[in-house]
């Protein structure tokens, strides 16, 4: 694979799960990959050693750190905003600060990162955010705040696609359904409930999400913009 040979790629939130699979895929494709992490230093260092990618500690809840990290990478070819958190629970009981922190990480960081990338991105660049099928379908109680953050990505990519389209830059959301990771283990307590909503009753593998990201970011994705690319085993069908 050499589909990203020499491309300047930044993945926000790349130390584990879907983000780590994306780092591996773009590094295997020849990209000059950098990724951020917040808490998982050991995993980040191991991934950097494995792939040759550069690991950068930057908390997505810190707006200035996000903006500075994106700016430091110069003219990007690909920005993928994967960092996200999941706060579930009865909205009457949830702690307001943890909901606001999730909004900082899942909404404010992708917006500021995408805008900062757009300032100096190369022509035909690619901006991808990892949204969720929960932007379209929230079939159980307790997910209102998380769904809010992921549906916010839909408005953002539609708008930024128009802001940056004259330079050939595409802006899209990839919307996974249940995907095996520490956030949502395939053998976790909610797995069989989730599989009940799906046509293909299994968690996706992180690598399957990474392959879709590679397609959207690759040369064949040039006319895909302002779109939601759902990869959910039929969860939203
Ligand atoms: P994980 O919890 O397994 O991994 C999350 C990744 O994001 C880690 O690399 C983590 O780094 C990073 N991250 C989290 N918070 C921050 C922060 N404040 N600053 C920088 N990095 C951060 O999650 P997944 O891989 O499952 O999820 C990745 C994305 O996919 C999220 O946006 C999630 O909402 C979305 N998604 C996941 C689904 C699933 O079923 N798994 C389904 C639909 C969408 P560190 O540990 O270093 O902090």
Notes on the protein architecture:
By secondary structure, the chain is an alpha/beta fold. The protein has a single domain (8-231), classed as Rossmann fold. Helices cover 41% and strands 15% of the residues. It has seven helices and seven strands, in the order E-H-E-H-E-H-E-H-E-H-E-H-H-E. The chain has helices spanning 17-28, 41-51, 63-72, 96-120, 144-164, 191-196, 206-217; strands spanning 8-12, 32-37, 54-57, 78-81, 126-130, 170-176, 228-231. It has a seven-stranded parallel sheet, sandwiched between helices. Helix 1 (17-28) packs across helix 7 (206-217). The longest helix has 25 residues, at 96-120. The radius of gyration is 17 Å and the shape is globular. The two termini are 33 Å apart. It binds NADPH dihydro-nicotinamide-adenine-dinucleotide phosphate. NADPH dihydro-nicotinamide-adenine-dinucleotide phosphate (NDP) binds at residues 13-19, 36-40, 59-61, 82-86, 105, 130, 132, 176, 178-179, 181-184.
């Amino acid at each position: 694979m050499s589909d990203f040979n020499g491309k300047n790629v930044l993945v926000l939130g790349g130390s584990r799960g879907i983000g780590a699979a994306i780092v591996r895929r773009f590094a295997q494709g020849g990209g000059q990959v950098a990724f951020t992490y917040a808490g998982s230093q050991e995993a980040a260092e191991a991934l950097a050693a494995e792939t040759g990618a550069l690991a950068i500690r930057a908390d997505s809840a810190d707006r200035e750190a996000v903006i500075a990290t994106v700016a430091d990478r110069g003219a990007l070819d690909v920005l993928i905003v994967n960092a996200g958190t999941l706060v579930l629970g009865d909205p009457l009981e949830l702690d307001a600060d943890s909901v606001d922190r999730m909004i900082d990480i899942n909404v404010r960081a992708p917006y500021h990162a995408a805008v900062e990338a757009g300032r100096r991105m190369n022509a035909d660049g690619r901006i991808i955010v990892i949204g969720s099928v929960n932007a379209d379908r929230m079939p159980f109680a307790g997910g209102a705040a998380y769904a809010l953050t992921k549906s916010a990505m839909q408005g953002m990519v539609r708008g930024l696609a128009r802001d940056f389209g004259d330079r050939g830059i595409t802006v899209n959301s990839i919307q996974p359904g249940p995907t095996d990771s520490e956030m949502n283990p395939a053998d976790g307590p909610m797995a069989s409930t989730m599989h009940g909503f799906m046509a293909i009753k299994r968690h996706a593998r992180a690598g399957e999400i990474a392959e879709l990201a590679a397609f959207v970011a690759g040369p064949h994705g040039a006319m895909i913009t302002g779109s939601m690319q759902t990869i959910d085993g039929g969860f939203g069908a």
